[in-house]
Amino acid sequence: MFMRTAATFAAVVAMSAVLSTAAYAQQQDGTAAHSPIDLGKTTFAQKCSHCHGPNMVTSGTVTPDLRRFPDDQPRFVTTVKQGKNGRMPPWGDILSDDEITALWAYVSSRRAQ
Ligand code: HEC
C-alpha cells in the first residue's frame, strides 16, 4: 500500500515537472518572438540600416553611430519622428509609437558603455 502511494506520488511529481517545463519553454519562445528589442531590430533592418549600418555598425562619419547615442529617449523620439537637418528623414507618419519605442529598446540594448 505504501509502495503504491509512493509510486503514484513520484509519477505525479514527474508529470508536473514535465508539464511546467513545457509551459516554461512555450512562454520563453513567445516572449522572445515579441520582445521590443526584436521588433526594434526588425524595424531597424527595414527602415534604418541602409543609412545607419546593418546592426548599427557604421563608421559614424556620414550618419552618427547610434551605439553612441546618449541615454536620451525624448531626443531620440523627437529626431525619429521629425527628422533632422533635412538629412535624417522624418518617420512620424510611417512608424507607430510602438515601433519607435521598440527601436529605442533596440538602440538602448546596443549602447556602447
Ligand atoms: C536616408 C538616410 C537615413 C535613414 C534611412 C535614417 N537615418 Fe537617422 N540619421 C541620418 C543622418 C544623415 C543623421 C544625422 C543628422 C544630423 O545630425 O544632421 C541621422 C541622425 C539620427 C539620429 C541622431 C539624432 C540626434 O538627435 O543626434 C538618430 C537617433 C537616428 N538618426 C535614428 C534613425 C532611425 C531610428 C532610423 C530608422 C527609423 C533612421 N535614423 C533612418 C540618416 C538616416
What's the layout of helices and strands?
Blueprint: H1 2-34, H2 36-47, H3 49-52, H4 73-82, H5 97-109
Heme C binds at residues 47-48, 50-52, 63-64, 66, 69, 75-76, 79-80, 84-85, 87-89, 91, 103.
Provide a brief overview of the structure.
The chain is mostly helical and 113 residues long.
Keywords:
binds heme C, Cytochrome Bc1 Complex, Chain D, domain 2, 113 residues, Cyt_c-like_dom, 5 helices, mainly alpha, Cytochrome c
Explain this structure to me?
- The N and C termini lie far apart (64 Å).
- This protein has two domains: 1-34; 35-113, Cytochrome c-like domain (Cytochrome Bc1 Complex, Chain D, domain 2).
- The chain has helices spanning 2-34, 36-47, 49-52, 73-82, 97-109.
- Helix 2 crosses helix 5.
- By secondary structure, the protein is mainly alpha-helical.
- The protein has five helices and no strands.
What is the count of helical runs?
Answer: 5
| Average of pLDDT | 83
How much helicity do the residues have? Answer: 55-70%
The CATH C-level class name of the largest domain: Mainly Alpha
Uncertain segments of ≥5 residues (pLDDT<50)? 20-31
**Succession of helices and strands:** HHHHH
Structural class, by secondary structure, is: mainly alpha
Percentage of residues in strands: under 5%
CA-atom Rg in angstroms: 23 Å
Report the CATH topology name of the largest domain.
Answer: Cytochrome Bc1 Complex, Chain D, domain 2
Described by strand count, sense and barrel closure, the largest sheet is:
none
CATH superfamily of the largest domain: Cytochrome c-like domain
Ligand kinds:
heme C
Q: Which of globular, elongated, flat, extended, rod-shaped describes the shape?
A: elongated
Q: Give the second-level CATH assignment, the architecture of the largest domain.
A: Orthogonal Bundle
- Per DSSP E runs of 2 or more residues, the count of β-strands stands at 0
Number of domain units: 2
Q: Whole-Å distance between the termini?
A: 64 Å
